[in-house]
Amino acid sequence: MNENKIAEVIQSSTASFIAECYELYEIPSFGSLVKTSVDSNEIFGVVALAGTGGIEPGRRPVARGKEEKTADAVYQTSPQLLKLLRSEFTAVVVGYSNNGKIYQYLPPQPAHIHGFVYSCTPEEVKQFAASFGFINLLTNTGQAGNSDEMIATVLREMSRVQDNPHDFLVGAGKALASLLGGDYQRLRNIIGRITL
Amino acid sequence: MTEKNTVLGSVVAGSVEHGVDVRLDTQTSVEDMVVGRYVTIEGKKQRFFGMITDISLGVTDDSITASPPSASDQFIAEVLDGTATYGALHVLPLKTISPAGVVDEAQTVKTIPSHFAKVSLSSEHDVELIFGKEDEQRFFIGNPLDMEMKLCLDLETFVKRSNGVFGKSGTGKTFLTRILLIGMLQKSKAVNLIFDMHNEYGWEGTSESGGRKVKALKQLFPEKVAVFTLDEENSRRRGVSTDFTVKIGYEEIDPEDIALLRETLNLTEAATEAVYQLRRRFGKEWIQKALDLADSDDTKELLADMNIHESTFQNLRRGLATIRRLPFITSRAPVDAVKTMLEYLDRGINVVLEFGRFRDITAYVLVANMLARRIYQRYQEKTEFAMAGNVATPTPLVITIEEAHKFLNPEVAPRTIFGTIAREMRKYNVTLLVIDQRPSAIDEEVMSQLGTKVTCLLDNERDIDSVLAGVSGKNELKIVLSRLAPKQQALIFGHAVPMPVPIKVRDWGSKESYAEFDRTRGRAPAQAKKDIEDLWK
């Protein structure tokens, strides 16, 4: 099994998909790049909202740790919890690749349910981040409130794998500045968060 | 600079009237741009050649100016640079060049480049295409700002009209004029008559920086220049070899000359009127006779007869006495100075008239006006004669005058010969080279007739306005003009240049610079070198 295979698509649309993680709490970090395949295309997404809850929507988990010393001990005494709870995340689609060529706009088809979701290798991240077209998709996700936070985190994450993180961030900042030219406050908020 | 033809930015707005706005690319630093530099704009159908007339900073969102990033936050400043904040140029298109490389001869540009046309610094090749190379007619006068190439002035065209050199005191007018005169000596067919008020053009002058001596015309071109002097003693003391000492007889002074001196001699209006009466009464020797009039009853009768009031006459006498005190004025001149001067000029020899110690404005105005008037009359006769028969027209003459506003101010310009020359211009092959520091004091009509204007730094608003009156792109050129360096830089515009050009005037005063002039004179370099060394002995 590919060790990067981390989740499976359980709900999908053109602009985003929701994936359930194979292991409880093993969610890829916020803002990291993941991918899933549809036919010959690979769809790229960045991890936006993530969370953990019970598998039955109507039934809330109950508190169990009154007698336990540590939180981990709760899971040890009730191993069924690992099956009753699940972690899932929403990935915002930022582009796709076809025959090795990367397009930073929405794919022709949405992701398939049960499609495997892989986390991307540093090499793949570097390739994807060679241009900044995806920033536009991120600014328009409509996830008010945390979309600025997400953009900043994505850029920070991506800069980690670059040879020259500073230049990368300046370049990305400039791309953002031309997109948000008329909204200086928002621009400043985001840029304030990507400074290393 | 090595960044030849690097794209600076692109055109984003503009109009024919006001020029075009150029937004700078991110990688172009606004601090590398200089007002007065040339840029080439690649339009879709033709290339435009223009001058940077203003540089500005822009923002896409006004709140940036309201709350700029803190000085410690370098990162955000770096990000904003070239995106949300950017540099912009204002460019005045001056010439168009067709794809085949042909320069449109018209003085003004009739269209503007389309949106997003690429703008780059002009290459030397482009500048040369427009201004031409140094040749038989073109004289190397300086370098365009921030460029190594030689900018050449077509002197044959230059001397066809009256021209002006302006600039406030100490900006290098004299240096510039000296260079222009040398150019005219070498490259044009015109002869020069220079009224050299401060004794700077004939033999040698001094440079203001360090007070070193610099050579002037006669030292460099002894065979082509004659120095006339009004003050032989002074010239001898300065070690100048003069060719002729000018003496002026009373009978050569006309009432018009006195009218011109009204202000300097403090004469009343009535006194200047009386001059004409006296001239009519006494004929040629009127000054002598008027001064000889004794305080007698006969005189009173005579004055009453001429309708001249006693006090008016006294006022006039005081004025005439001032003139009489000038040592070069004699009751009878031994040799006719004008005739001698014309002989020299006819032989193609340039004449510099030094004033020696007589630098006061009375002497200057009187002599310059008187001589120029008579020379002009002769030229007029000769030209008319030439028109009648098939005789060659006289050699074109350029008269250089300093403190020009004394001759050309609105009050006297209609009366002085210089006003006439400036207005009637080249009809009689006589033109002016006007040198002045207060162009606003010169008659508007005369200013508008000047063909080419060369102006050093001016900072008085009225002076700038009067120099630039009627030039297209006046407001833009105003910015360029007021940003010139206080020395050795000048803006040239008008008839002899295809478009306005700010230049750094060529070096003058060093050994090398003289050698350079000699080279352009076409002598063998070895001989030139020897000559220069001889000069320095």
Describe it.
The complex is a heterodimer of chains A (196) and B (537). With 196 residues, chain A is an alpha+beta fold. Chain A has helices at 71-77, 81-84, 122-128, 134-139, 147-160, 165-179, 184-194, and strands at 5-12, 16-21, 33-38, 41-54, 85-98, 101-103, 116-119. Chain A has seven helices and seven strands; from the N terminus they run ββββααβββααααα. A six-stranded antiparallel β-barrel of chain A has the order 1-2-5-4-3-7. In chain A, helix 5 (147-160) packs antiparallel against helix 6 (165-179), helix 5 (147-160) runs parallel beside helix 7 (184-194) and helix 6 (165-179) runs antiparallel to helix 7 (184-194). The model of chain A has no long low-confidence stretch (mean pLDDT 89). With 537 residues, chain B is of the alpha/beta class. A twelve-stranded mixed sheet of chain B has the order 8-7-22-21-20-9-19-18-10-17-13-14. A six-stranded antiparallel barrel of chain B has the order 1-2-5-4-3-6. Chain B has a two-stranded antiparallel sheet with strand order 11-12. The mean pLDDT of chain B is 82. In chain B, 37% of the residues lie in helices and 22% in strands. The two termini of chain B are 39 Å apart. Chain B is built from 21 helices and 22 strands. The chains are: A alpha+beta (196), B alpha/beta (537).
In short:
By secondary structure, chain A is α+β, with helices and mostly antiparallel strands. Chain A has helices at about 70-75, 80-85, 120-130, 135-140, 145-160, 165-180, 185-195, and strands at about 5-10, 15-20, 35-40, 40-55, 85-100, 100-105, 115-120.
Task: Describe the secondary-structure layout.
The complex is a heterodimer of chains A (196) and B (537).
Chain A: E1 5-12, E2 16-21, E3 33-38, E4 41-54, H1 71-77, H2 81-84, E5 85-98, E6 101-103, E7 116-119, H3 122-128, H4 134-139, H5 147-160, H6 165-179, H7 184-194
Helix pairs in contact in A: 5-6, 5-7, 6-7
Chain B: E1 7-15, E2 19-24, E3 38-42, E4 47-59, H1 62-66, H2 74-80, E5 85-97, E6 118-121, H3 124-131, E7 138-144, E8 151-154, H4 155-158, E9 163-166, H5 173-187, E10 191-196, E11 204-206, E12 213-215, H6 217-220, E13 225-229, H7 232-237, E14 244-245, E15 248-249, H8 255-260, H9 269-282, H10 286-292, H11 297-306, H12 310-325, E16 329-330, H13 337-346, E17 350-354, H14 361-388, E18 397-401, H15 405-408, H16 417-424, E19 430-436, H17 444-449, E20 452-455, H18 461-468, H19 474-482, E21 489-494, E22 501-505, H20 511-520, H21 525-536
Parallel strand pairs in B: 9-19, 9-20, 10-17, 10-18, 13-14, 13-17, 15-16, 18-19
Antiparallel strand pairs in B: 1-2, 1-6, 2-5, 3-4, 3-6, 4-5, 7-8, 7-22, 11-12, 20-21, 21-22
Helix pairs in contact in B: 9-10, 9-12, 20-21
